[in-house]
Amino acid sequence: MGETGYLILENGQAFAGERRGAWHEVSGELVFTTGMTGYLETLSDPSYYGQIVMQTFPLIGNYGMIPADLESGASHVRAYIARDMCDAPSNFRAAGRLEDYLLSQNVPALTGIDVRRLTRIVREHGVMNARLSDVPELSAEALAALRAYTIEDAVEHVTAKAETTEGDGGMRVVLWDFGAKRNIARSLLRRGLQVVTVPASATAEHILSLRPDGVMLSNGPGDPAENTAIIREIQKLYSANIPMFGICLGHQMMALAFGARTQKLKYGHRGANQPACRQDTGRVYITSQNHGYCVMGDTLPKGARVSFTNANDGTCEGIDYEVFPAFSVQFHPEACAGPQDTAFLFDRFCDSMKEGKAHAAR
Hints:
By secondary structure, this protein is α/β, with parallel strands linked by helices. It contains 10 helices and 19 strands.
């Protein structure tokens, strides 16, 4: 047993555990994810920027550190919580221990905590702030500061720093990066497309100057409504009548640009086992999700309709736009480590671009 550290919730409750990773005191928004695998994808997903991530599955790290599975070039979590962390991984692809990755990314961790009890608290209270601390009790001043913690300028911190081009396919997609997971670009490249990734600060004018056949709006962190400048640029793209596909944060900002509203969920949807119901067929797909906000489906103006809902709570999980060639989903069809039930949405996007290209040629 190593040194003792503490997780202190904003309500003052404290949980003792073993200090792991690059231990230091830090505050963040505490969220839980239910995935049994995919911990590397979680740790490297930019959508977790500013958050302390807790794994509900009791054993994490048994297949070690696999660089090819990372979704970005760095970890964006504030801290990491697990019941047990494996120090002897067994996998032919493993290039080290999970803790080695945490150390390399300066991510502090706590293990030995009863994550099921902690999850129940978050489920009842909702998303709450927490702090990794050297001591089991915070002063009144420190507790007030913890309660006031907010995630700010999230997209700016995780977006690409420069424009890049990959692939040489016959059709070109502009990937608008708000904190994109690598597998979005991989999913497009596998379909023979050229992918031009642009930073979140890109304008609609610049995106159109690249002469894309379609625009992909990526996932990302934070409150979608804060990104007012990006939302204005999305509105300009709508008038260009170009095929568009939004995922997660991209989905939310597309809806905001169309006139809908978003709201913060009590504890969000995070994990690889979220059921999404397709409205036109009634079929349920198992999806990977990571979001704390949702589009309020009943605020969608005429010209857009809800295409998927969450089978657990009925929240909006997808939108089809009827006045221009665009659609979006709240879940992750590019999910690694899965499930891949909804990967067909990338094919739908490709078909939309082909139709647009054929129409332009006539």
